[in-house]
Amino acid sequence: MLAGAGVAGQCEFVPVDPFYEAVYGGERIEVPGTMDAFFETHASRFPAERERLAKFLALVEDVYRQTRVAQTLESTFDILGSAERFPALVEYHRATLAEVLDASIQDAALRALVSTTWPYVGLPPSRVSFLYWANMLGTYLVEGPWYCRGTFQNFANALADGVRRAGGEVLLRSAVRRIATERGHVRAVVLETGNRIEADVVISNADALQTAEELVGEARLPPRWMRSLRRQRRSISAFVVYAATDADLAQAGVCHESFQFSSHDHDGAYATTMAGSPDWLSMTVPSLLDQSLAPEGHSVVVLTTLMPQEAAANWRAEKKRIVERMLAQAEARVPGLTANLRFAEGATPRTMERYTRNTGGAIYGWELSPAQVGPGRLMGVTPIAGLYLAGHWTRPGGGIYGVVLSGIDAAIRVLGLKTPDALWQQLGV
After folding, report:
1. Which of 60, 188, 198, 209 could in theory staple to 134 by disulfide, Cβ–Cβ 3.0 to 4.6 A?
2. Of 297, 325, 356, which one is at a domain's C-terminal end?
3. pLDDT class for 250, splitting at 50, 70, 90?
4. Distance separating alpha carbons of residues 353 and 343, to the nearest angstrom
5. Could you give the CA distance from residue 415 to residue 201 in angstroms, rounded to a whole number?
6. What CATH code is carried by the domain that includes residue 284?
7. Which long-range contacts (CB under 8 A, 24 or more apart) does 49-52 make?
8. Same domain, yes or no: 326 and 351
9. pLDDT digits (tens, 9 = 90+) for 328-337
10. Residue 299 lies in domain
């Protein structure tokens, strides 16, 4: 994709090893980022489950590989009528992760360990789409986990440079007032400044419901389409603590990514999240992979937990309490962290909403339940000719990988192509 945008080599991707650390109370496991090593790490702890775990991970890989074929040849997730070609995608399109795990693995502790990464997709195993979670895990274990050196902002900068090199212009701090239409066709984008940018094609990766209701206007869209849009359930938001410390993280044996749970009960963890007092978090230390992010002897630490915006009536009043709570949780893993803090700032769901404009600060667009992935998720086309959608509100779904794929799909549709391969050929990649 970067090559197609004309910016190949502009981003340096560093392998992440281990993939993550799983902490459950006093239990700590470093999990590697390849399929074979992932299997051995877990199977060695649960030898009685070795065969069942192997079959489960084989299914995860089947889902991953069948999805890649479907995306390459079909360009969408609409494959339910192709059971012979995509048996796993068809069989499990309505399944949750918990349903598949319960049918595959007997030991509850192993089920919990295998599903440690559920926060990456915003729903616990009992509610998240198995297909989407399996694609996420399969991508990591087959392609490897990678970090964009210099922070992920470099990736966004590279895409912006690609636009400029192609003769385009990137406007920042340029709020959009409306998308002008005429006789069912898009005509222009009008900025809050009043400037009108004429366009026969507009791609919006903004909040899909806001795009329809506020930018286009409900009166210009079919009632049935609007009803289907409003039936979708938005994802949860997040609370993040950005911190700097001179605590000795190397001595603590901290990994780049650490998931810290108080027990193996992921549904219980999610319940504490919905109540506004999560008893779990993830800790990311990007300076372990990229020392340029912090002075020598210091580390950048990011603590993240999921959080609904509705969990607090006044986030300004609640922010300090939650920041202190999350720092105390991280202290259990890294003694001395709080005593050696040099900076700490919290970002609430309202912060997420302010910077992304997503309703409720939704960090994955629509939630990634079985009913809202594949055919159940919004397509990138709209009833307005020339207006397309991209981003985590559309297919395939949330997360960087899903959003990138949605942009590729939008480009294919705009250019009247059929497959990603046709797009790469046209771009000379």
Report:
1. 60
2. 356
3. confident
4. 23
5. 10
6. 3.30.519
7. 49/105, 49/106, 49/107, 49/110, 52/104, 52/105, 52/106
8. yes
9. 999 999 999 9
10. 236-356
